[in-house]
Amino acid sequence: MLTDPLLEGYRIVDSAGKNNLVVRLIGGLGVAAHNHRPLPPELEREFADIDLVIGRKDGRALSDFLVGIGYEANQRFNSLHGAKRMLFYDKENQRQVDVFVSQFQMCHSLVLEQHLKIHPRSLTPEHLLLTKLQIVEINRKDLLDVLRILYMHWNVDLPNECPGFSIERLNEVLSHDWGWFTTVNDNLEKVKSFAPTVLSQEKADEVLKSTHDLQQRIESSPKSTKWKTRALVGRRKVWYEIPEEVNGRA
Fold first, then answer.
1. pTM here?
2. What is the overall mean pLDDT for the chain?
3. Closest by CA position to 1, among listed 56, 35, 49
């Protein structure tokens, strides 16, 4: 296994692909895989673990693949939760690999299986953004990742092989689920407060403009009947789940 977690993540994705397994990076490494312009040093952060997502039918095959290249499976966890999530460990680098199967289930649920082939190594930027903005108790590292996504993708010309940000795919989730919409919008307000504390005035202004634009486009998207019905209840009823920690990590 490689010492650098991003390079090791690339190795897993590329090697799995040669074995006809469609696996993609998510989490902080998924965000780091979208590197389309020079990154402000203020947005750099270290990565401890590797997070992946795989289609449902390929879960067992990926497990066999990871064990075959030297990872140790968490047998107890995987036997209990393997239909949705699996854990593996790299003893040499003391690094965990967390595999989500078909969907990302934390404070909210995000089905990903049909979107895995859009980007060659990672999730799309809008789905990465959702995995970060769904965190009700969002922390500094996740806010840094949100800033990085917006800085890398909003109104930035990208090469043809790197799909840009799709507001349509974002609104496929947010326009049909009031809870999702509410958590995302709450966290975008936190992003607007956080950006000026870590970025230069010029770069903070750029991200703030992007965030404001994003909020407007989310707000203006037509909402489903289900969304409108849940909105009548509002915050009187809890609209999210708090995930259990796994090995000290959520």
1. 0.92
2. 93
3. 49
